[in-house]
Amino acid sequence: MKLVFINADLWTVSQGVIEKGQILLEDGKISALGKTVEIPEDAQVIDLEGKIITPGLIDSHSHVGILEEYVGPAGDDVNETTNPNTAQIRALDGINPLDEGFIDCWEGGVTTVQVGPGSANVIGGEMLVIKTAGTVVDHMVIKPFSAMKAALGENPKNVYGNQKKIPATRMGTAAVLRNALYEAKVYGKKKAEGKEQPFDMKKENLLKVLNKEVPMSIHAHRADDIVTALRIKDEFDLDITIEHCTEGDKVIDLLAAHDIYLAIGPTLSSKSKVELKDMGYHTPVLLNQAGIKFSIISDHPIIPEKYLHISAGLAVREGLPEEVALKALTEIPAKMLGLEDRIGSLDVGKDADIVVWSQDPFELMSQVCYTVIDGKIVWQGGK
Predict the structure, then answer these.
(1) All structural domains of the chain with their residue ranges
(2) In sequence order, what are the residues at sequence separation of 6 or more whose Cβ sits closer than 8 angstroms to the Cβ of residue 304?
């Protein structure tokens, strides 16, 4: 299928804005864009006078499909709360691609998501990256093991403290994480020395973290938890991202010194626990002023995917430059996920994932007119 959109302002991210431009989508890729393109005779042409096209939005922290809309416990597969270390489990095995949360994605122009286990366990398991259209999750995958989920702070200590087992404190949480990494390190050393030992899937997966094949994605809201994450990163020489980073503004100098990616949000939510007491859109504003790189996330279904752009728009209202907000939903998460060669900007050769907006996507009244994934229109609405 060949699609051409004409007369729209193209917010390319990588090369500025092309006013009243044209973009050709062919064989699932962007094959041409500019003020004018050569339009194939067999292409479907859609005139978008006065509208805006951006790259498909990317949510680097979501539970879509694994914590389903409206079905309650029957669709809650997000936390395997039977052991504080479940490094062996895969989010892949819990995702229902028919979850109505994926329709939220299309309504909000979200074309790619990183989905992972929740934050009940110290080590939650494998995260993965998928496109948001499809009926078989295996066919939606674009990165099967994108990060190892880990968590600090209130959630794991509350879950396991109530079970009268470690971790019941922040000390215990850090100890569980540290011990698991150390045991995996010893396991890997013995393997390298050719010493026979029983296969251990947890340790095999954590070896991939220790060898920097995948990053560790660490849930941390409070400033001291963020510091603990950085401490363990340094102890084991890990690649990490910090998820939520609610009090990141309180340790800006330390974060800047570590030069890591952050995933900020879901700031549009209520302050449902103590570690969220200082949550606000001042955090991304201040982090940006310090030159720190971050994505903006929904943590769906905490914030429905269709409101991801609204959440970023509220950050713009509080002082975040609009171009930074756009990058926080496109270019930056693409780089965080190691997929910048495929998604995150409007460039020839990249995946044909685009969103057509009725007006500035950060305005409350903006609507998604078309969501296109791999060159196919999956959502049509708006005005």
Answers:
(1) 1-55+345-383, 57-343
(2) 101, 104, 108, 298
